[in-house]
Amino acid sequence: MIDLISNYHDENYIDIALMKRDIDDCIIDLSKLPKLINLTIINCNAQLSGIAEAGTWVYTNDFEGETQLLAYDFYGFYTDNAGYQLSLVDTDYVVQKGDTWHSIARRHGIPLEDLLALNRAEREEKLFAGQVVRIA
């Protein structure tokens, strides 16, 4: 897949986000990835990215009883020339046909109860295509 994308985009501008647990479970072999891409590691509830090759690290932390979604940009992949941090994490999701609270929570690795609380929603509430849902 990366080879295909590389035909259309410079590898220096390609970012791949992977869950650390998928690497630990040998679902993904990092040696198969090109060295020029930015590797974003999602390692929730951790004090380190846990992967030496990581260019970006996304993690969670609790602050005053609230779960915070944080990111660290080791090599400036998401920092513009003026030094401003660009968004590492989308905070909103546009609902697609067939989505449910459960499917959105699973897709984004968010506990269902946290997703519902973020949106001040109840489990029974229906979603509609085009609706904007907070995910962070």
From TrEMBL:
One Pfam family this sequence matches: LysM
LysM domain residues: 91-135
Protein name listed in UniProt: LysM domain-containing protein
